[in-house]
Amino acid sequence: MRSISRKFQVSFIAAVFAIAGLASCSKDNQAEVIVPQIVSPGLKNGNDTIFIGDSRVLSPQLAEVKDPTFLWLVNGVQVSTDSTYTFTATAKGDYTISYKIISGNALATFFYRIKVLGKFENGFFLVNEGWFGHGPGDVNFYRNGEDSVYQDVFQRTNPGKTLGTTTDYGAIYNNKMYLVSKQGAFVVADPGTMKETGRIDQLPAAGNSFCGINNSTGLIGTADGVYPVNLQTLAVGSKLAGVTGQVGGIIKAEAYVLVMSQSQGIVALNNTDLSVAKVLGPADVGFTRTPDGTVWAARDNMLFAINANSLKMDTVTVPFPVYGSWGAWNAGMLSASTIENAVFIGKTNSWGAGGREVYKYAAGNPNSLNTPFVTIPDGREMYGAGVRYNPGNNTIVITDVKSGYGDNYKNNTLYIYDASNGGLKKSVNFTGFFFPAMPLFN
């Protein structure tokens, strides 16, 4: 049996059987058995991984065939008696397609193995603000290993529907995607299909962020505090007491929910009743979490390490200012590895964007901040919360635009760097006034 690529993690089985009893025999006269040959299965040795909506034509090349009849079965259910079969993927799953050819008094069989992924699996999303004054936000999609970006996949999947204006935040929680815009709709979609599953037409204040708390409750950070939302009905509750001003990042950690307030700094809420447990002090950028449970935030030349159990906060000095972006809020360029206690920090200008350098702070090693981990090319600048760690393949994803103004902003590049050594793995150019807000991983 020949070796098959690990990509599919499956093997095909081909077997040929003589059919007994189909021809009478005698001592002097025995019928000749002509066994049909499957010369080639016609599909990557019988294996493939495709996406919902894709099709594959299965057309084996044959030899030694006489008056054949055919039979096709998908997971044991008969689907065709033609010589070829077109398999169309309508649902996720693993499929075994059995092909049988009867020729004369002999039978040959082959088994195809096809894995079907969701249309928006095996890749990641790019949430986009959209071009203010010209159109709403939307979502692009990058499929791993390809050299292009699928554009505006929300509108293309949901004709006649749009996101709100300036879509600056996305989160995936309990297999649902939550998309937050500063004006207009708060939208929920299926991350596998991008089909809209619910929306709130208008939030009580300009939306900034979202955090899932449990199966029934989420929190929405706005320009005027934090609002709970029922995740089953999408009914918005009353603003939480004790949290004032504009709210940016929110993260659930152990017994607490940490909230970033422009006026108060980091506010710790009890995750049982969402009452204020403690105000930890000023900060501008956050949050992210390393595998040891530490929650990270930043302000000026300080990186804050917060113990999620005790709320004790330690400070690490950073050799450059880590700017927030309260004036035109975005989620910030702070993102943590999921396999090592390391935080990636995008060095931005004073309004929380721009810049070309990303630093990697290895917890406990201040020398790790002496030199940039990654530097994007000259003439480019990072935009929005355009530095994010991808836990699916241990990479750093960076979005940027061409430096300058006007038409430069339609010149986008997506970079993928190795999160262990900083090596560039892929760069993809694409065009459009997207104004990328943040990468988002399923």
Structure description:
The longest helix is centred in the middle third of the chain and has 5 residues, at 153-157. The protein is elongated and about 90 Å long. The chain is built from one helix and 36 strands. The protein has a domain at 14-117: Sandwich (Immunoglobulin-like), CATH 2.60.40. The model is unreliable at 1-29 (pLDDT under 50). The strands form ten sheets. Strands 1, 3, 6, 7, 9 and 10 form a six-stranded mixed β-sheet that branches. Strands 13-12-11-36 form a four-stranded antiparallel β-sheet. A four-stranded antiparallel β-sheet has the order 14-15-16-17, with no helix packed on it. The protein has one helix at residues 153-157; strands at residues 14-18, 37-40, 47-51, 55-58, 61-63, 68-74, 77-80, 85-88, 93-103, 106-117, 123-128, 138-143, 149-150, 165-173, 176-183, 186-189, 196-200, 207-212, 217-222, 225-230, 247-253, 256-261, 265-270, 276-281, 285-289, 295-306, 313-322, 334-336, 342-347, 357-362, 374-375, 380-390, 395-402, 411-418, 424-431, 436-441. The chain has 442 residues and is mostly beta strands.
How would you summarize the topology of this molecule?
Layout lengths: L13 E5 L18 E4 L6 E5 L3 E4 L2 E3 L4 E7 L2 E4 L4 E4 L4 E11 L2 E12 L5 E6 L9 E6 L5 E2 L2 H5 L7 E9 L2 E8 L2 E4 L6 E5 L6 E6 L4 E6 L2 E6 L16 E7 L2 E6 L3 E6 L5 E6 L3 E5 L5 E12 L6 E10 L11 E3 L5 E6 L9 E6 L11 E2 L4 E11 L4 E8 L8 E8 L5 E8 L4 E6 L1
Parallel strand pairs: 3-10
Antiparallel strand pairs: 1-10, 2-5, 4-8, 6-7, 6-9, 9-10, 11-12, 11-36, 12-13, 14-15, 15-16, 16-17, 18-19, 19-20, 21-22, 22-23, 23-24, 25-26, 26-27, 28-29, 29-30, 30-31, 32-33, 33-34, 34-35
